[in-house]
Design brief:
The complex is a heterodimer of chains A (about 475) and B (about 325).
Chain A lengths: L4 E4 L2 H21 L2 H11 L2 H19 L3 E5 L11 E7 H5 L1 H5 L17 E4 L5 E4 L13 H39 L3 H10 L6 H24 L12 H37 L1 H16 L2 H18 L7 H35 L3 H8 L4 H38 L10 H8 L11 H28 L7
Antiparallel strand pairs in A: 1-2, 2-3, 4-5
Chain B lengths: L1 H28 L3 H9 L6 H10 L16 H4 L2 H6 L16 H36 L4 H14 L3 H15 L15 H31 L2 H8 L4 H22 L10 H6 L5 H10 L3 H29 L7
The chains are: A mainly alpha (about 475), B mainly alpha (about 325).
């Protein structure tokens, strides 16, 4: 059977899939080892951390949906020719948000507006020309009389869905409660009491409340966004909510792939330096001191400038703007990785220096275990907590760094939708009269929630895994 | 002490050589001077003559690393590597694409950068330490919990929003200070208030949390218990004992950035149109002036290494147990 689309695999997609496989594999491995599970159990008890996790998973699902790319088949005019595909690369998220993506107005419009933000010369039905605020093509287009109908319409839509959503959530809560009471052999009444008071082993109250909140917000905003522009439209009339949602993937890619790229270097070099000492240690220390002595932003700027020249020179190598932007994103992850592996490498070196003198390593050596095996089987498992802490701590910083780099002009490709690009193009809007505030607000909210969730979760991970903090 | 410093300075040389080689490879080997010329003259329809002329004007019309046609020592010195990279070692930065002397520009622009970075650092340090001290004093209470929650929340906001928000609130809505710009001498103060304030608010979240964890670590130590057992008041314990001992880890973080203050902040300076080194760099990045970027990379590395040496020296000053040999 022929599908009417062609699956397109971007480079960052591949990396994301690889990362997903690694994470799932790691999770599977951990779930079978009791001693590895203990710190995770500790995290499970913390309500803030679990709320943050729910939010992170929500962002992750948006990002993953935006990482399945394909191109539509063009309508065939000549059956003898080979199949033709649309050059525009779409993602699953684009399909889901088709209404948002295609409801493009002419220019700025305020959130939930029915009329454009700027006056325009229009011809009235009687032939006279007037400067008025024209009706929007999509925002509130279903209203006959927008001035009086807008708020009642909005209220009834929101109210209806809120009641409906709360009903579903309560049913869901009851279902979870029943499942849990079955599993733990606790009577439903007792289970309900425990959950409401937050006395369960896993912080179910926090999880369910956050999930419920996300569900209601999505349930209300989803259908509403096809009728109104919830966050208004930007200069070229694009729906700002759509842009903010597309920015999720860029943020996640920067935050996660950078770590994926840097981890092999940091782990390999850090452990080698600490284990072999001597000349190898000197060489590796020289390498990272040299790299860390270059100010990070400048190294990134220099590398991205060079990449730009290279891309301009080989412009034919990229099939579409999307692919070009994608390669640049991957390269940005690479170069961010080069500047950010040093801290972890230094830490691993120090820890390995300590571990290699421990009795169990000395014993292994005396028994004739090879260097390679000692490093992978004796030292690596005992420094993994450092790696994990570094990974989660770096994430939020990298998401914030993307915005700044895009502002400086050395971030992601200008054609790529990212929060940094949104802020960059919107920063002059505050100087307008009246103020255009919604693009910045949308970028702010989406970024703040992601970074806050990441910060809270990484704190919990650090507390659970850092032996120095244990028991505090 | 003197021998230690001399040794550290000698250690710096191979590192600077490495930085230099790295930037050289990045700028000249990955992309040839021809590519650079084409970039500046526009990609399409550039005549070879125009490229040759651009290269001659900017001193790129010589071999990259080895000049076979020259005589004696000039085989090495008449090359791009020697002229553009080795000369950085004597702080001869050459000329920018618009013909200005980079070294003179840097000397002139470093003062506005310093005028904004120095007060930001000092005010930030004082406020962060004070707030962290307060939170540590009220540890394990509601003030502590909420302090941390607010700090994590403030940490999660991009610095760009602090700048945009600060400019909007203080300059546009309340019209207290000019939105951006810079002036010489004492007139600069009114332009500096907002950037310093923004830097303070933007850094208070992470700063407070970091100092709080340092203080709490010190508070858990035995000498603090001894001090309390002697009957000292909690405030005396905090200020006379904990603060002084906490200075060691605080210094590690602070002294290393002091030399880098000369470099300024890219984002702050460009938002507030301050003619410092940060905006100099950002302009160079945007106009793709590789000479300036290369000079700034080299300068940044030198200052970073100076910062590391200063950190070591400052250790002996706050912690008499440390001896540098």
């Amino acid at each position: 059977m022929e599908f009417p689309f062609q699956w397109t695999l971007l480079w960052t997609d591949r990396m994301i899939y690889l990362l997903l496989v690694l994470v799932v594999g790691f999770g599977f491995y951990v779930s079978r080892k009791e001693h590895l599970l203990a710190p995770w159990r500790q995290i499970r008890r913390r309500p803030f951390a679990m709320s943050a996790l729910v939010l992170l998973l929500f962002y992750l699902s948006i990002g993953l949906m935006d990482s399945v790319h394909f191109r539509k088949q063009l309508p065939m005019t000549d059956t003898s020719k080979a199949l033709q595909y649309d050059p525009e690369v779409l993602s699953l998220l684009d399909v889901l948000l088709e209404g948002l993506k295609n409801n493009v107005e002419k220019t700025y419009s305020a959130p939930l507006a029915t009329h454009a933000f700027n006056k325009q010369m229009l011809e009235g039905p009687d032939g006279t020309k007037q400067r008025i605020y024209p009706r929007l093509k999509y925002g509130g287009a279903h209203l006959v009389n927008p001035e009086t109908d807008r708020w009642p319409d909005l209220l009834s839509r929101v109210g209806e869905r809120a009641v409906f959503g709360i009903g579903i959530i309560v049913l869901f809560y009851i279902w979870v409660m029943l499942v849990l009471s079955q599993k733990h052999q606790i009577p439903p009444k007792e289970m309900t009491r425990k959950m409401i008071r937050g006395e369960t082993e896993t912080a179910w109250r926090a999880i369910l409340l956050t999930a419920g909140l996300v569900f209601i917000v999505v349930g209300i905003a989803g259908p509403l966004s096809t009728k109104y522009h919830l966050f208004g439209t930007d200069k070229v009339g694009q729906d700002v909510l759509y842009l903010a949602l597309k920015g999720v993937r860029t943020g996640l890619v920067i935050g996660t792939l950078t770590t994926l790229v840097m981890l092999p270097f940091a782990i390999f070099l850090g452990i080698s330096a600490g284990y072999f000492r001597g000349k190898i240690d000197d060489a590796i220390q020289y390498l990272y001191t040299t790299l860390s002595s270059i100010p990070g932003v400048l190294l990134i700027a220099a590398a991205v400038l060079i990449l730009q020249v290279y891309m301009d020179k080989n412009a034919d190598a990229f099939a579409s703007i999307t692919e070009r932007a994608d390669i640049r994103l991957l390269f940005l992850c690479l170069i961010l990785g080069v500047t950010s592996w040093i801290g972890l490498c230094r830490m691993l070196r120090g820890e390995t220096l300590k571990l290699r003198e421990m009795e169990y390593v000395q014993a292994a050596k005396a028994l004739g275990v090879g260097n390679q095996r000692i490093m992978t089987h004796y030292i690596l498992p005992n420094v993994m907590h450092l790696v994990l802490i570094a990974v989660v701590l770096d994430f939020s910083g990298l998401v914030l760094a993307e915005a700044i780099l895009s502002y400086v002009g050395v971030g992601v490709d200008p054609a790529m939708i990212s929060w940094g690009n949104m802020i960059n193009s919107a920063r002059l809007e505050l100087a307008r009269e009246p103020v255009v505030w919604w693009s910045l607000t949308a970028a702010f909210i989406f970024m703040f929630v992601l970074v806050l969730a990441a910060n809270v979760f990484s704190d919990a991970v650090r507390d659970a895994f850092d032996p120095r903090l244990r028991g505090r | 002490m003197i021998t230690y410093i001399i040794r550290r300075v000698l250690y710096a040389i191979p590192i600077l050589v490495g930085v230099n080689l790295l930037t050289f490879i990045l700028f000249f080997v990955v992309n040839t001077p021809d590519d650079m010329a084409r970039l500046h003259l526009g990609m399409k329809r550039v005549t070879p003559e125009a490229i040759e002329k651009w290269k001659a004007d900017h001193g790129y019309d010589i071999p990259v690393a080895w000049n076979a046609s020259a005589e004696g020592i000039q085989k090495i010195s008449e090359t791009i590597f020697f002229k553009k990279s080795v000369r950085l070692f004597v702080f001869d930065f050459g000329f920018a694409d618009d013909g200005r002397n980079i070294g003179a520009d840097i000397r002139e622009r470093m003062w506005p950068s310093l005028a904004i970075a120095m007060p930001s650092l000092i005010v930030g340090l004082l406020v962060n330490i004070t707030v962290a001290m307060l939170i540590a004093f009220f540890r394990a209470s509601y003030i502590d919990t909420w302090g941390i929650i607010v700090a994590v929340g403030m940490m999660s906001i991009s610095s760009l929003f602090y700048i945009i928000g600060g400019q909007f609130l203080l300059s546009k809505m309340f019209r207290l200070v000019p939105i951006s710009g810079y002036d010489e001498g004492i007139n600069a103060v009114k332009f500096l208030v907002l950037p310093v304030l923004v830097a303070l608010v933007g850094g208070i979240g992470s700063g407070t949390r970091w100092y709080r964890s340092i203080f709490l670590e010190e508070i858990g130590k035995d000498y603090v218990r001894t001090a309390r057992a002697k009957g000292l008041a909690e405030l005396t314990v905090l200020f006379r004992h904990v603060l002084r001992n906490a200075l060691v880890p605080i210094l590690t973080g602070v002294v290393v950035v002091i030399p880098l203050l000369f470099m300024g902040s890219l984002v702050t300076e460009s938002f507030f149109s301050i003619p410092g080194l940060g905006s100099y760099t950002i302009d160079a990045i945007n106009s793709q002036d590789f000479g300036i970027v290369r000079a700034m990379v080299f300068l940044g590395s030198v200052l970073y290494i100076v910062g590391l040496i200063l950190t070591d020296i400052s250790y002996t000053w706050v912690d008499p147990r440390v001896r540098l040999r």
